[in-house]
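Intended use. Records like the one below are meant for learning the mapping from a protein sequence to its folded structure. Do not use them to infer anything beyond what is encoded.
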Amino acid sequence: MMNFNGRHTVEKIGGTSMNATEALLDNVLIRGRKGADLYNRIFVVSAFGGVTDRLLEKKKTGEPGVFALFAGAESEERWSDALTEVGDRLRAINHEVLDDAGDRLEADAFVTERIEGVRTCLHDLQRLCALGPFRLEEHLSTVREMVSALGEAHSAKTTTLLLRRRGVNARFIDLTGWRDDLHPSLDERIANAFHDVDVTRELPIASGYAHCGDGLMRSYDRGYTEVTFSRLAVLTGAREAIIHKEFHLCSADPKIVGLDQVRVIGRTNYDVADQLANMGMEAIHPRAAKGLRQAGIPLRVKNTFEPADEGTLILDDLGSAPARIDIVTGLRSIFALQFFEQDMVGVKGYDATILEMLKRHKVRIVTKSSNANTITHYLEGAMKAVRRVERDLAESYPSAVIEIRKVALVSIIGRDLALPGLAMRSLAALADAGVEPLGMHDLLRSVDLQFMVREEDYEIAIAALHHALVSSEVPEARSVATAHAA
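Structure written out for the chain above:
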């Protein structure tokens, strides 16, 4: 049974921040603390930056890693060589991060045990499935989890050794279920691992991956680290959950609008966090946010490299704060799939069929609109997958007219957008910039206002809306440049 006093924080460190070891020590893990001040914190760590890409596949390009090569079954040599390269990279990180020779030996032995254990398992599974009755695809979700877990286990172990060498009573909490034949729920896994932890005297460093019967990656894919972090905060009754990232949450992309123009979002709510996730700018995975929100735990997002800045505080305060625009962001390239069918008027079922095909081909819906005879879905995914959806729809509805067009989406997001004339001011700003919207979505919940524009107008639209609605409206808000200077 876990026993926590509710005075502690649960904090997650992202992969890019993990790579900046000295900054992480100076700004987050230790930051001048001594004695008891070092404790009453629990850390959940991601794999070092780039490691999960090597283990699974590159997130941005899809270039195959160990898992993708194994799943493709092109050759045993390719995935095995890739696994060896990951082991070499993890040991190189150990030697970059750890100063003590004994610590490096321990960390290297840890890596070797895990890498060779996974290699043996994959060899055995491949041989078993070659017999005929056993099908490899039935085991791939388990393989994906086992391979991915290597990254977080390594980072947690290495960070623990790093802290111990600096006099911190750090404790490695391995949630990966290594050589464990149990398949508990996520809550049970966490409870068992923390049942005897004393956060007033120990600094737990937990792996971001946690093995459980439901399979975190089946439900959350690469968002699993944040789900572990969220459940740990909820189960231990943390006073605050903190995510350390390599950037501030701010009012726009500084590369588009300028570093001196963007504003740090000082305080917002979980509705805004959900909208950011939909735009691919995850402050936190939506399912992880839900747990914190329901438990009434505030979430703080901090910049690892600007420790003096309080960051962005996210609360469940819908309707309790003044109306304000928090951010202008969007998606540079998405697909508009327009489905027109004259027979649709007054008939149900068309939308359900489209949704089923999108789910089948794993195409993500960003937003959608419809009228009497047309349904338009705005989609994020590979062109091949979208074309498969188009083909299946054409087969099911031969008389329908289906069109696909690449567009960009620009979204104005805020905890309450009930601002006088916002839509008209936005349209005027776009018109002044020479941007003609292809469509507009304004929902009753008033947390986002979306515009569809041509791909080539994406940055122009972001800059125009931000200048008209944010830069010129809140000059007193602290800018990212100011925060950096501080």
